[in-house]
Amino acid sequence: QVLTVQRTLLQAWSIIRDTYVDPTFNKQDWTSQLKDTILKLSTLDSSETAYEQVRDMLATLGDPYTRIVTPKEYENFRISNDGAVDGVGLLIATEQESGKLVVLATIEGGPAERAGVRPGDELVQIDDVALVGMNGEDAAIKLRGKAGTIVGVKLRRTLKLKRETISMSPVYTAVLPHTNSSGQKTSTGYIRLAQFSQNAAADMQKAIFKLEESNVDSYILDLRNNPGGLVRAGLDVAEMWLDGNETLVNTVDRRGVTLPINVARGHALTHDPLVVLVNEGSASASEILAGALHDNGRAILVGHKTFGKGKIQSVSQLWDGSALFVTVAKYLSPSLHQIDQVGIAPDVECSPLKSPDDVSEAAGPEKFLERDACVLVAEHLIE
């Protein structure tokens, strides 16, 4: 087992040597790090402790995003980015003020929808695990499992749901009616983008076409708590809102060379007014998209300062099924603003989500959104 990890170590070390963004490797001799780690591995007798030594070597780079993950962890990552998951078809969110986990939406035709789960329902327990203090991602992991197995979900009532393989779209849409200050009735197309998976761009295009057919007057693009994902997907989505040859993002490689990435096709799918919602959970590709739309004058940003992850990574599957995430470049906004460890400040700050407690169980997701203070701010800005 240790010999297996040694082979993985050599593969990972070589990838970092050739591609890592900092050619000084945090001002250290990278070859010496390899030799020291191999010596430490020779005294170990389990793969678990051997992997810990590899992680310790990577930690010397001082970059928490350059890391090795186990085969099981990589499988979960691929589920997230491939857009299909074995679960019950629930999109959940944490209500900011109370910390409650509530249902944002159900996947059409999925087990949860068929069982009568509704937007606004509060999740209390999964199997025998109480959800007090648990974040949405950890709860989502507990809902996943092999298709055909049963999971107990306690809302205001207790359900037994059979897991299925569900095609997960990262895009959710709604049409929000609104009466402006002049008394005129308008409608806003709301689009929530949960992550930048492989099907994010295609699903975003379908969402915009669908909302255009509904004759909406404006758009809200919700990137709150979107941790990122595939950078290419973020760039593809940005192009759907921009014309011409605008700069989407600037990359800085390991040589310190700054290169712009510009719009390739230059034909926006809509020119209606746009507000983008962001918060401290908006990271990486979310920040690329928000920066592209903001710096090119296409959108107003509303919410809270973003996470501040201005790094571009490559993912390499290693021979034993594990994977290496390596920071290969940094990025700046189109206006050359630093994002890494800084984040993007919104044009307008807003309060957290209001409590959904007084929204009836029969209410649709639109009613839940009408209680969202940031959505209300956005609607006011685009009157």
Automatic annotation (TrEMBL):
Residues 80-158 form the PDZ domain. Gene3D superfamilies: 2-enoyl-CoA Hydratase, Chain A, domain 1 (3.90.226.10), 2.30.42.10, 3.30.750.44. It is an enzyme of class 3 (hydrolase). One of its GO terms (biological process) is proteolysis. It is found in: Plastid, Chloroplast thylakoid lumen. Pfam families: PDZ_6, Peptidase_S41. Keywords: Hydrolase, Protease, Serine protease, Thylakoid. It catalyses: The enzyme shows specific recognition of a C-terminal tripeptide, Xaa-Yaa-Zaa, in which Xaa is preferably Ala or Leu, Yaa is preferably Ala or Tyr, and Zaa is preferably Ala, but then cleaves at a variable distance from the C-terminus. A typical cleavage is -Ala-Ala-|-Arg-Ala-Ala-Lys-Glu-Asn-Tyr-Ala-Leu-Ala-Ala. It comes from the Eukaryota. SMART domains: PDZ, TSPc. InterPro entries: ClpP/crotonase-like_dom_sf, PDZ, PDZ_6, PDZ_sf, Peptidase_S41A, Tail-specific_protease. Its EC number is 3.4.21.102. The keyword Hydrolase applies. GO terms for cellular component: chloroplast thylakoid lumen. One of its GO terms (molecular function) is serine-type endopeptidase activity. Belongs to the peptidase S41A family. Protease involved in the C-terminal processing of the chloroplastic D1 protein of photosystem II. This proteolytic processing is necessary to allow the light-driven assembly of the tetranuclear manganese cluster, which is responsible for photosynthetic water oxidation. This is C-terminal processing peptidase. It comes from Selaginella moellendorffii. The lineage of its organism: Eukaryota, Viridiplantae, Streptophyta, Embryophyta, Tracheophyta.
